[in-house]
Amino acid sequence: MFDIRPVAYVIGLLVACLGATMVLPMLVDIAEGKGEWPVFAECAMITILAGGMISLACANAVEEGLTIQQTFLLTTGVWVALPVFGALPFVLGATQASFTDAFFEAMSGLTTTGSTVLSGLDELPKGLLLWRGLLQWLGGIGIIVVAMVFLPELRVGGMQIFRSEGFDTMGKILPRATQISSSISTIYVSLTLLCAGSYIATGMNTFDATVHAMTTVATGGFANYDASFGVFGPGTEYVAVVFMMLAALPFVRFVQLSTTRDPGPILRDSQIRGFFSTALVLVVLVTIWRMQSGDATGEPAFRKALFNVVSILTGTGYASADYGVWGPFAVSLFFFVGLIGGCAGSTACSVKIFRYQLLFASIRVQLRRIQAPNGVFVPRYEGRPVSDEVLSSVISFFVFFVVTLGVLSVALALTGLDFITSVSGAATALANVGPGLGDEIGPSGNFSGLNDTAKWMLSFAMLLGRLELLAVYAIFTARFWRA
Amino acid sequence: MFDIRPVAYVIGLLVACLGATMVLPMLVDIAEGKGEWPVFAECAMITILAGGMISLACANAVEEGLTIQQTFLLTTGVWVALPVFGALPFVLGATQASFTDAFFEAMSGLTTTGSTVLSGLDELPKGLLLWRGLLQWLGGIGIIVVAMVFLPELRVGGMQIFRSEGFDTMGKILPRATQISSSISTIYVSLTLLCAGSYIATGMNTFDATVHAMTTVATGGFANYDASFGVFGPGTEYVAVVFMMLAALPFVRFVQLSTTRDPGPILRDSQIRGFFSTALVLVVLVTIWRMQSGDATGEPAFRKALFNVVSILTGTGYASADYGVWGPFAVSLFFFVGLIGGCAGSTACSVKIFRYQLLFASIRVQLRRIQAPNGVFVPRYEGRPVSDEVLSSVISFFVFFVVTLGVLSVALALTGLDFITSVSGAATALANVGPGLGDEIGPSGNFSGLNDTAKWMLSFAMLLGRLELLAVYAIFTARFWRA
Ligand SMILES: [K+]
Ligand SMILES: [K+]
């Protein structure tokens, strides 16, 4: 078997960093003065110590490069280890959650899913609310780095199509991850500050603005109130729409823009065009549906359609209205919109625009080929021919996604969940969207009433979906461990 | 534009043949003596005349060979023209159906879907019941010929993998269709007679045995009673299981068996092995579920599980119990089982075993490739490497299937159907299974209460699913008509 110590070293470091960030909610709890601060002090200590010890134990095996197996293990390992420690404040804090619930909440945070098992959010200590925001915010930047550095290198889910774009691919993987993280961080922090500032300008208080800005740019969807965005005004909704859309765009374009000052690459990017066209069509459709069914008129009809479509399409999962009562069309539509997703290389999740574009390009070629069997046709993306390797990679992802969705739905049903809860729960977890459908887990419900087995299954599904499935499945094969 | 007359000629002939078969229900109506026979006499006259006139008008353009465009148009044209005329007896006969309902019923028959808009089946004139059986029986043999001759030639949905198997592929397409039809017909008729005989042996009357044998070997699922197979005894259920399974196997293997007397190819066939393994796992799962939930015990638990699993897996769609009340696990499971399907080259429908096998082979290769980026791995099927062309064809089918399912569900919801009815209705129509889920279209309901728009959408979906989607979609492209 290969050496897992270099992997454990990095995971330990990241765990320790997570522990260090627990100081922020501790400070907030001290400021609030409800006496909750010792919880975060304790959690920070445990987490920093545990992470530090792991790292120290493995420090003598550190290398600059990682093998392909080590890289896989690192990617999955980080998203298993961090939720374990991220769950501590929910167990020890005011929520007094079981470990199952706490792990679910932390996994939902770090994968930017945003499904919650907590209710009574309005009454929680501010430290815990900030912690939920921080988990999503860290998960968001983490996933951008993974999507830009690790997945293309691992050739997972067709991400290799983005390999040589914008960044030099020749360096060692860990130094490159560090380098990319720092240029992305600047963008990510600026976006968050801009978002928080805009929220404050629309009347939100500073604390809510900070937490919601974090969960907006992470397309995470955790909110500080049980009613989610239902408590805020129209201006706030428009601000959220702008930043949810920005967060769903490929971050490499922002980096390019900041260095070259040329908006050309953004305007020409097929994913971005596809994403905006999709959003436009959906918003128009839902607005018309709402207006002709007489439920709403004028600006509110448009705004509610815009907000909820963008929220589900980007996989954020805020709700500003219970679209469960918008009639059957809206319910079915939102279910399938959640399976579209934003752009690759962003914090958005699900199948993603570029995969549909590649799949449709392949189908177009297929249709031509059956009409002219002797012609030679090659699918193209952004003008360049797409290699068979990328295509078969995208396809494996899509088939795996659909089959996993089916198996998971049946498995959830096996634990006693009804059809709509199992199917929409499986979909929302795998696509990292957040809310499901139906009375139990729909936009006006939450996940606390599910049985523990279902919660563990959903936690696993969030992990799978966030790491593009194959990155996780790969480590379950015997061949992997023999290497 | 290409010459459509050779296509119209063949379609005219087939319409006339359909008219000729209307004599059979006419004879049954005469024998029953309810005075219903003039309906079929009239329908037969209209249909034979119309078909004959079309053929005569185009007779001077007949050629032995068809271009690829003509072959596409023929395949879809047949499955549009025949339901139009097949619908006549439902409009003019005792059911007094609207054309929408009648077309839905005829399309459901000829595509071997088996969803019905008729209730009060127990009281219908026997002629109409026989007609429903005949539609499915003819649709069943028709689809085997299409699957063995047309689809491989058209390179649709990966069916080209079966091109050179068992039959010479060099002949002209129409003579070959005729030749294959005759050898398949012998098998098909023998199976039907054997099935009818076995039904009679278990106590069914001759008429019911005939109709149900027709709808069994066609994996069609129309029954003579509103309660479907609920009215028959255990012996009948076991007989049905045997013949549903036989009907879902590739018919080319039966032809081989009858000429070579060697069962080897059947036992070695990957599809057949995959099909039986899938069935076994599902039956065991459902039996255990039913027994541990205390709903049923011993033989009845096993039998009900066996019958309903086989019925849905083969896409037959008979129900011998309302599995809608078997609890959430059974409901979700049956939904996804309907998306598996039987073997290619049979009367069974849906995605089909061989496509999943090819997709999984491709994913296995993908997993190896990401673990050893420099290795060369090629997916194999039955020991032979699978060409990229076949794989991308299978993939196009799968993606098209999933995306069509999504779009259709949303479109159905737009007409006012609730989530479970839209999604399960779209799935059952596209997979040609028959029953949906939920109170309205579940195993104990029927499709009569849906609005007309939904019925037309579902009729179109049945056509799409039966002809493996791309064969239909191909004729909607502008390039097709320019050729
Ligand atoms: K989310
Ligand atoms: K059927």
Bound molecules: potassium ion
Low-confidence runs of chain A:
165-171
Q: Classify the oligomer.
A: homodimer
Largest two-chain interface: A-B, 61 and 61 residues
Terminus-to-terminus distance of chain A: 6 Å
Class by alpha and beta content of chain A: mainly alpha
Number of strands of chain A: 2
Shape verdict of chain A = globular
Beta-strand content estimate of chain A: under 5%
Mean pLDDT of chain A: 87
Sheet with most strands: strand arrangement of chain A:
1-2
Query: What is the tally of helical segments of chain A?
Result: 22
Family (chains A, B): Belongs to the TrkH potassium transport family.
Protein name (chains A, B): Trk system potassium uptake protein
Function (chains A, B): Low-affinity potassium transport system. Interacts with Trk system potassium uptake protein TrkA.
Keywords (chains A, B): Cell inner membrane, Cell membrane, Ion transport, Membrane, Potassium, Potassium transport, Transmembrane, Transmembrane helix, Transport
